[in-house]
Amino acid sequence: MDEFNASKPIYLQLADRIHRQITSGELKAGEKLPSVRDMGIKYGMNPNTVQRAYSELEREGILETRRGQGTFVTERQDRLVQQRDKLKHEQIEQFVQVMQELGYSAAEILSGLEQYLNDMGKGDA
User: Fold this and answer.
1) Do 83 and 68 fall within a single domain?
2) What is the pLDDT of residues 52-100, one digit of tens each?
3) 4 three-state secondary structure
4) Which site in 9, 32, 62, 90 is 20 to 30 Å from 101, CA atoms measured?
């Protein structure tokens, strides 16, 4: 189990974690999430923190609360595709920002990434 860090509110870290689980396919469209209480126990956090993460994801259209049934991953594929693209963009943005801070040009970043992906395809990365 990964630890939460102090640099970002815990509810946002939990929301990010759920985002990643949905993007990776670990959580599927229409799948029920653990109750707020069970999720709090699982991650050792206050249920109010879990509720805040769920509310944030519901506001973004990623989760849906069904009265008397619980919280589910949305079945709206357009929202899930949009979130997947958003997560990809955020990760690329962070990567490029770090590389630029290290002094690499766009061409060097691109060639390095291509080399890495090619090596990965060969099992070298």
Assistant:
1) no
2) 999 999 999 999 999 999 999 999 999 999 989 988 999 999 999 999 9
3) coil
4) 9
For residue 109, give its domain range: 78-121
Q: How far apart are CA 4 and CA 2, in angstroms?
A: 7
pLDDT at 7: 84
pLDDT of 1 over the 70 cut: no
Among 75, 90, 112, the domain boundary falls at 75
In sequence order, the β-bridge partners of residue 65 are 71
Would you list the DSSP string of 32-90?
BPPPHHHHHHHHT--HHHHHHHHHHHHHTTSEEEETTTEEEE---HHHHHHHHHHHHHH
Q: Is the pLDDT of residue 48 over 80?
A: yes
Residue 11 · residue 60 · CB < 8 Å: no
